[in-house]
Amino acid sequence: MVQKAKILLVDDRPENLLALEAILSALDQTLVRASSGEEALKALLTDDFAVILLDVQMPGMDGFETAAHIKRRERTRDIPIIFLTAINHGPHHTFRGYAAGAVDYISKPFDPWVLRAKVSVFVELYMKNCQLREQAALLRLQLEGGGKAAGGEAKEPAGLLAELSARLAAVEEQAEALSKQLSDESTDAAAVATAAHLERKLTGLRRALDALEPGSAGDQTAVN
After folding, report:
1. Alpha carbons 44 and 99: distance in angstroms, whole number
2. Residue 14: in which H helix or E strand, if any?
3. What are the Response regulatory domain coordinates in residue numbering (predicted)?
4. Residue 212: helix, strand or coil by DSSP?
5. pTM
6. Which residues contact 29 (CB under 8 A, 6 or more apart)?
7. pLDDT tens track for 33-88
């Protein structure tokens, strides 16, 4: 079963959280509520999130301060943040949002379809990154375990490499399709950059896997 991504919704008004849940429920992911910046930071200590929807105007710790704390933590600094605000103080206010680390800045009332589409992009990128980490972890485990299959029986090196290569190829194909979709739709630059980063990771993993193939330069170096 594919694990669902978690989306963090941060707003001090319950009716706004309810509205966000209604809009994003169609994505069929796990929606986590936080009614303050402090509560959001607490949730981020234990859970991994695909994207954060963060209200700017909150009593106590506002959205800008909350984002600053998120970006200072190594565990959470790369999580995309979409700022939601009911006010518009002009370019300076928007710039402050991007300076705080936001990938997008949306004014209320917002178009539900647009918000859902933006969030879905980051959810898909998150899922692809999870697949990449799983494939990398599987590669390490099987190589360290001498290429044992799930049943505990040792697999031939050629068969193991072929299986891992096929799994990686599936992720590469999905990542390439996603990157093309983002480029064709002229999506946010942050989303396109994240997709490009994912493809670079996949390229690195492919090179490492290719180096294990018999007769490769890496294999010959190891023999010599």
Report:
1. 21
2. helix 14-24
3. 6-123
4. coil
5. 0.66
6. 4, 5, 6, 7, 50, 123
7. 999 999 999 999 999 999 999 998 899 898 889 999 999 998 898 899 998 887 66
Distance CA 95, CA 83 (A): 12
Return the residue matching tokens 């040792």: 154
DSSP 3-state assignment of 52? strand
CA angle (123 as vertex; 117, 127 as ends), nearest 5: 145
Return all residues near 137 (Cβ < 8 A) that are at least 6 apart.
none
Q: Is 125 helix (H, G, I), strand (E, B) or coil?
A: helix
7 phi/psi in degrees, rounded to 5: -120, 125
CA distance linking residue 175 with residue 203, whole number of Å: 11
Bond into 109 cis (ω within 30)? yes
